[in-house]
Amino acid sequence: MRQLLRLLYVLSALLPITACTKEIFPTPATTPQPPATATATVEAQMPSVAPTATATPTGAPLPLPLYFLSEGTIWLLKPGEPSPQEIAIEGEVSTMDVWPGDNRIAYGTTNGKVYTLMPGQGAVLLHNVQAETDSPVRIGHVSWSSSGTKLAYTVAYTAEQMIWQAGYPSYPSGLWVFDLEAQSPTWLLSNHYFQEGERKINQLRVVSASEWSVDDTALLLLYSYWEWSNYSILEPIAHQPYEANVYDLDKSGWGSGFWTRDGQAVLISGQNYRDVSDLMLLDRVTKEPKLLINGTAENLYVSDAQELSSGIVFLGGNRLYMGNLTEQGFQYAPVGTDPLCEAREPGHIEWDTTGQWGVLVCQYGPNDSQPVEIRVISLDGENINLTPFFNTLPKTPTTILWGSNQ
């Protein structure tokens, strides 16, 4: 069941590409845009802030603001507030990111536009990608750089015929970076679509997401294929007409990948199709893998592994684990509450910049009649059920991100 759900999750990322059957022929691939510097990500270290005294429905305080994306709209739940409040935006939102330095929002729309939004101000249009092509496009993922000065975003076609005829390269699809200081976008990479008449399905290669290294000099890319996904490192961050500086990490499957805190390695987990999976540490320079946990030997399904200031935290079944590299190897032990979720299994944990608080979506489970659980957790065992807050939302949030108490 877990493998099927992960398959459906990845395929759902490709659904926007095939959602429209309007017959539109591709525009020819063109020359790259002028180089630009980058945009913003979510790794700035923010000071710890004491939680407010107002309790959640389960009695515990919400420590920091939370931003949600639900049915094309962005919502904000502040500590002490009884319910999320809708944020006024332009367009139907398909993806968003929040830079915790000032709670600045970056978001993309289903009709190919990228905006930024400062708290209390109106949305500012950065890039209208749709204006550069006759084929309908959507913004698939946005990511702030660590410095908050650059923004990476992905672009995908939404007309089904484009999948079969767009070919490669196919401007303006793929990966872009916008430099907020220079106010200029750069097209970095193209998606791989089929040539006209081509039917080899594994030729499809779409940039689905990106994550900045802490020094803003490299991007960890998630590539979605027809039947699997793969992580790659883009370094340097510049236009790559032949992908010369895209280094595939060759770990195909449906797993997760995250930079380590120093940006010198990538943690890869959840890569197997069976009921167990490994934890790998891949060196940024050498691209050599180091096996931290052998899932078969440990009878453990390792997923969502991320490095916090206190160590490497990962999910194993319905438990949270903390580990560190020692002279004896990688040593780990369970932390927090047991179990993390009541009726479902943990899916992803979004940690705040201090590594103190995680917001957890419990999304996998044998019984679909059970509602998706959303919880705030800590390494000390606090587990706050936020699900009652979302009764007022049109649908369960697809994205949940931390803000900061400024």
Q: Structurally, how many domains make up the residues?
A: 1
Specify Rg, calculated over alpha carbons. 21 Å
**Count of alpha/pi helices:** 3
Helix content: under 10%
Please describe what this structure looks like.
There is one protein chain. This protein has 406 residues and is mainly beta. The protein has one domain (2-307): Neuraminidase (6 Propeller), CATH 2.120.10. 7% of the residues lie in helices and 40% in strands. It is built from 3 helices and 28 strands. The strands form 7 sheets. Strands 3-2-1-28 form a 4-stranded antiparallel beta sheet, with no helix packed on it. The radius of gyration is 21 Å and the shape is globular. The chain starts with a helix and ends with a strand. The model is unreliable at 1-54 (pLDDT under 50).
Main attributes?
single chain; 406 residues; mainly beta; Neuraminidase; four-stranded antiparallel sheet; 3 helices; 28 strands; 40% strand
Provide a short characterization of the protein structure.
The protein is mainly beta and 406 residues long. It has helices at 2-18, 160-165, 295-298; strands at 66-70, 73-77, 85-87, 93-99, 104-109, 113-117, 124-128, 137-144, 150-157, 174-179, 184-189, 205-212, 219-225, 229-234, 246-248, 256-259, 265-269, 279-283, 289-293, 302-308, 311-316, 319-326, 329-335, 345-351, 357-364, 373-378, 383-385, 399-402.
Q: Topology of this protein?
A:
Blueprint: H1 2-18, E1 66-70, E2 73-77, E3 85-87, E4 93-99, E5 104-109, E6 113-117, E7 124-128, E8 137-144, E9 150-157, H2 160-165, E10 174-179, E11 184-189, E12 205-212, E13 219-225, E14 229-234, E15 246-248, E16 256-259, E17 265-269, E18 279-283, E19 289-293, H3 295-298, E20 302-308, E21 311-316, E22 319-326, E23 329-335, E24 345-351, E25 357-364, E26 373-378, E27 383-385, E28 399-402
Antiparallel strand pairs: 1-2, 1-28, 2-3, 4-5, 5-6, 6-7, 8-9, 9-10, 10-11, 12-13, 13-14, 14-15, 16-17, 17-18, 18-19, 20-21, 21-22, 22-23, 24-25, 25-26, 26-27
